[in-house]
Structures are given as C-alpha cells and as structure tokens.
Amino acid sequence: MSTRTSDSAALVRFAAGIAIGTLLVAAFAPAPASASLFGKKKPKIDYSVTLPPPPPPPPVQPNGAIFQAVSGYAPLYEGWRAKRVGDPLTIVLVERTFASKSASSQLDSSGKLGFTPPSSGPLSFDPNAAKISGNRGFNGKGATDQSNSLSGELSVTVAAVYPNGTMLVQGGKRVTLNRGDEFVQIRGIVRMADVDTDNRVASTRVADAQIEYTGKGDVARASRQGWFSRFFSVISPF
After folding, report:
1. What is the pTM of this model?
2. Where are the domains of the chain?
3. CA 159 to CA 166: how far, in whole Å?
4. Which pLDDT tens digit goes with each residue over 93-145?
C-alpha cells in the first residue's frame, strides 16, 4: 500500500514539474511587443526600400549630328515630383485622432403585498405580520476617452505605379537613442496629383495608410508589463 502511494505521489510531482517547466519556457520565450501572452502574431508588413528597375540596354549609337538617342528622352520641363518606381517622396505626418464614448443606465423597481385578515375567529391574526415588500435598483455609468498624435516627416520610396494615377509608397526610419531604438514606418496609396512642388504629401492624403511607431530597448521594456503579471491578467476573471 505504501509503495503504491509513493508511486502516485512521485507521478504527481513529475507531472507538476513538467507543467511548471513548460510555463516557464513559454513565459521566457522572446515575443514581439505587438503580440500578447497567448495571442497570435500580427502579419508582418513589408516596408523595405524599393529600388528603381535596371535601365534598358542602350540603343545602337546613331550617326546623327544634332540628336543622339543614346542620351535618352526627357521633356523640356520636368519637376521633381515622384512618379516612377524608386523615386523618393516625403510624407508629412500630421496624424491626430480623438474618440470619446459614454453610457449610463438606471433601473428602479419596487413591489408591495398586503391583505387584511378577519377581525375575529380562528383565522384572525395581526395584519402587520403579513406584509411583504421589496425594492430593487441598479445604476451604471461608463465613459472612455482616447487620443493619439503623431507629427514629423518621413521619406519613403515609390514601390509601384498604377494606371489610374496613383502609386504605392513605403518606407521607414530608424533612430538610435541612448538606451533604445525608435522605428517609424508607413505604407499606403498616394495620388500623384496630391504631391506638391516640394515633393511632399500629407499623411492624411495617404489612402489605406499603415503607420507603425514602435520602440526597442530599456525604455520600451520598462513600459511593458512583466510576463508574470501578463499571465495572471489573462486568466484573471476580474
């Protein structure tokens, strides 16, 4: 009997050790800042720099004395606006968003029951002992406010040009500070007509914009909740 009990206790300790070891491995495994403890990874967006395509082979050297086709073709006046794959473009970040929501509800209900018994006879009793009443109330309120602001400038490159006069732009910037790195990345569709004479366009005119501002290092790590707290936040019913 004692041998069977000791074997069962050893099996329980072995299973508990495996469970704790698995939890520690999962907790200490590196995870991106955008992924939760048990959440799925976000799809990675390609912000890589797009270079212009290689130039076509030069034509055969002509014998013309005035016009040489090998020098290429160019209009008489051409601005500096981006319009070809690989051309740089400056995005002016002017992102400002604000959201507010509030809700309230109130509920009150009451009930009362009473009757008058006979004044005499075997069924007579004190009427104050036969009164029933009840009240119920609920009052709930909720409010939330959220605001975001992002400003600055970011140079990107043209990744694709479409026949309808729009182009896909993408790019990013990495800034290394004392105790960490900062990343700003953007991708979206820009209309060529919205590009000004300085080859700039506001981020509010970028369609399907995907803007990311993230950081790595001591500062970003200090502002992130620890793995032990994240674990109990996931399983906490409160």
Report:
1. 0.54
2. 2-34+230-235, 77-97+148-224, 101-144
3. 11
4. 998 888 888 888 887 877 776 666 666 666 666 666 667 777 877 788 888 88
